TrEMBL record:
The lineage of its organism: Bacteria, Bacillati, Bacillota, Clostridia, Lachnospirales. GO terms for biological process: amino acid transport. One of its GO terms (molecular function) is transmembrane transporter activity. The keyword Transport applies. It is a multi-pass membrane protein. It holds the Pfam family BPD_transp_1. Keywords: Cell membrane, Membrane, Transmembrane, Transmembrane helix, Transport. Belongs to the binding-protein-dependent transport system permease family. Its main location: membrane. InterPro entries: AA_ABC_transptr_permease_3TM (IPR010065), ArtM/GltK/GlnP/TcyL/YhdX-like (IPR043429), MetI-like (IPR000515), MetI-like_sf (IPR035906). This is Polar amino acid transport system permease protein. It is found in: Cell membrane.
Length: 226
């Protein structure tokens, strides 16, 4: 039975379809990550502003996104907004919107934490040696912030890649959805197909996420002098 199960992967275009679905996953993930990184940096800088109204608004946004499950946000955007406001949004666009909202909130908080973690005496030392505010940020603050931020941002990107598996539930034909289609088509003839199909999907996610996680760990060790 197991021999028949593994043959499912090589029937017709099944294996190619899995790779095509993986590419959809990668496209949505990369686009969401890029948007999140750019907007998150801006949000993180705004979150350091010493204004109670700004702080309250940004904190409310952050807590809302963190508390609300990503699946609920996907349903809210894809099923709720489209019907309530008669907006024609595809599953792919809805996924990018939701993951960008989530990633921006998380990235913004990482940027905020990295910025406020820089000791005050770093700013004072720069002023003491005659540096302008722009030179202080360019030569002292930004390099240290990047060293703190990059490993955390890479880990966030990994989390976003793995969470994209939820978009199968709104009809996006990515790798998990393709796997479900292959399993359903082989349900009667090859009952063990699920083992092999989901095993391959696990391996594909591992191939993407593991190198990224190792890169984050290596950068963190190198910059911490370990």
């Amino acid at each position: 039975m197991q021999d028949l199960g593994i043959k499912v992967l090589f029937e017709g275009r099944n294996l190619i379809r899995l790779f095509e679905g993986l590419w959809v996953t990668v496209e949505i993930s990369l686009l969401s990550v890029l948007i999140s990184m750019v907007l998150g940096i801006v949000l993180g800088m705004i979150m350091t502003v010493k204004n109670p109204v700004v702080k309250a608004v940004t904190r409310l946004y952050l807590e809302f996104v963190r508390i609300m499950p990503q699946l609920v946000l996907l349903f809210l955007v894809y099923f709720g907004l489209t019907r309530a406001f008669h907006i024609n949004l595809s599953g792919e666009v809805s996924a990018v919107i939701v993951f960008s909202l989530w990633g921006t909130a998380e990235m913004g908080d990482l940027v905020r934490s990295a910025l406020i973690s820089i000791p005050v005496h770093q700013y004072e030392s720069g002023k003491a040696i005659g540096l302008t505010e722009g030179q202080i940020y360019r030569s002292i603050i930004i390099p240290q912030t990047i060293r703190r931020l990059v490993p955390l941002a890479i880990n966030l990107a990994t989390r976003m890649i793995k969470t994209t598996s939820l978009i199968a539930l709104i009809g996006v034909v990515e790798v998990v959805k393709v796997g479900q289609q292959i399993i359903e088509a082989s349900r009667l003839s090859v009952p063990s197909a699920a083992l092999w199909v989901y095993g391959v999907i696990f391996f594909l996610y591992f191939l993407i996420c593991y190198p990224v996680s190792k890169l984050a760990a290596r950068l963190e060790k190198a910059w911490n002098g370990v």
